[in-house]
DNA sequence: TATAAAGCTTCGAGTTGCTCGAAGTCAACA
DNA sequence: TGTTGACTTCGAGCAACTCGAAGCTTTATA
C-alpha cells in the first residue's frame, strides 16, 4: 500500500486482502506514534477489523492498518467515542451502501474539528494575554 | 500575597477585577460554560482559593472567579493535570516572587497549544481528504 | 543443547477527570 | 405549614486509557 488513497480504498470503502509488509505492534506504535497499549486496546475493541495475526497470535500491521490507525486517532481526538468508532467500523464492513452514512459522520467531525481549532485559538490568545501581562509586570519592577 | 484582588489581578489578568461575590454555581456555570459539577469539582480540589461561601455554605462566584475559571479551563484543555493546576495555585498564593515560575508554566502551555493547533489542522486535512474521496466516489456511480 | 533474553500475548487492576445521583439543608413563597 | 427549588456533600460510576504481572515463542548466546 503506497498512499492514502489506496488505503481509503481498501479500508474505508472495501476490505480486500492487503499484501504489504507487516509490522509488529512495537514497530507500528513507533510509526504512527500511538502507544502499543492503545493499539492493542483498539484492537481488543474491534477497531482493527482486518488486522492479521500470525500462528503465534502476534499482531501484524499492514500499511493499510497504519493509515487506519491514524484515522482512528483522528476520529477519537475529534471526540468520537469507542462505541461510535465501532459503529463506523460496522458501516465500513457492510460496504458501499453505507457511504452516505459514513460521509455524514466524517462531515460532522469536520465541523467539530473546525470549532476545536477556533477554541484552541481562543485559548492561545488567553495564554498570550497573560504572558504579555507578566512580561509587562516584570519590566515594571 | 496580601489580598485576593492582588492575587487575582496578577494572575487572572483583568484590570480591575471585581471580587464582589455575585453568582451562584448555576449562574456561574452558564456564564463560563463549564458544568456546575466541574466547577464544584475544581473547588473541592482547591482550584478556587478565593471563592467565597455564604453562611449557608453556598458558593458565590465573583467576576474574578469567573475569569479564573476560564483560565483553569484553558490550562486543563492544554493538558495540565489537576495536580499541576494545584501547583500553579500554590505559586499564585505565595505571591510575586513566583512570577517567573508561573510565566514558565504559561509559556510551556502556549507552545503546547500551538502544537495542538497544528495537530488539529492535520486532522482536519485528513477528514477533508476522506470527504473529497467519498464525494468523488459518489459522483462516479 | 540448555538457557537466557527479547518481544510479544492476555487479562485484570489502577488512574484521571470528570459525571451522576441520592440524601440532606436552607430560604422563599402559597 | 408545607412544598418547591436551588443549593450542599459524598460516594459511586464511567470512558479511555495505562500499567504490570504471568506466560508463551522465537532467537541469540554459552
What does this molecule look like?
2 copies of one chain form a homodimer. With 141 residues, chain A is mainly α. Chain A folds into 2 domains: 1-94, Multidrug-efflux Transporter Regulator, Chain: A, Domain 2 (Orthogonal Bundle), CATH 1.10.1660; 99-141. Chain A is built from 6 helices and 2 strands. Chain A has helices at 4-13, 25-32, 36-44, 63-77, 82-94, 99-140; strands at 52-53, 59-60. Chain A has a two-stranded antiparallel sheet with strand order 1-2. In chain A, a hairpin with a 5-residue loop joins β1 (52-53) and β2. At the A-B interface, α1, α4 and α6 of A face α4 and α6 of B. Chain A binds a DNA duplex (30 and 30 nucleotides) through residues 24-26, 35-38, 40-41, 44, 56-59, 76, 81-83.
What's the overall average pLDDT of chain A, rounded?
A: 88
Q: Which architecture of the largest domain in chain A per CATH? A: Orthogonal Bundle
Helix content of chain A: 55-70%
C-alpha end-to-end distance of chain A? 61 Å
State which percent range the strand residues of chain A make up: under 5%
**Count of DSSP helices of chain A?**
6
* H-E order of chain A: HHHEEHHH
| Total number of distinct structural domains of chain A | 2
Rg of chain A computed from alpha carbons, rounded to a whole number of angstroms:
20 Å
